[in-house]
Amino acid sequence: MADIYHNKNGDAAVIAASGTQSSKVHVGDYCRGSFRTPTLSGTAFTFEVSNDGTNWDTLRDAAGAAIAAVTVASNKNYRLPQGVFSYRWLRFVSGTTEVADRIILVFLGSGAAS
Description:
Elements: E1 6-15, E2 25-26, E3 32-36, E4 44-50, E5 57-58, E6 70-71, E7 77-79, E8 89-94, E9 102-110
Antiparallel strand pairs: 1-9, 2-8, 3-7, 3-9, 4-5, 4-6, 4-8
């Protein structure tokens, strides 16, 4: 039987000017993904996750420790941490207040990576 792949391209998470938290992205049943940074003020992202899109917590490892911040640069592609796929919703948190609206493109997929 052939593998079935489903991809969701180009969802956007927006960090508003003077903010650090992005809008939420629905991860749903996807199992892998990546994101593309815009021009940024900050140099690191952490991630918040939720199962209901309302109550948020810092992404943590199996032992309960917060996942370390991911160092990011402007206009680059990065893989999402695998742990986000255990939840329904994702938010990005910039380590620095952004001076303008920032649109982070998010790409999600299911099935084997191509």
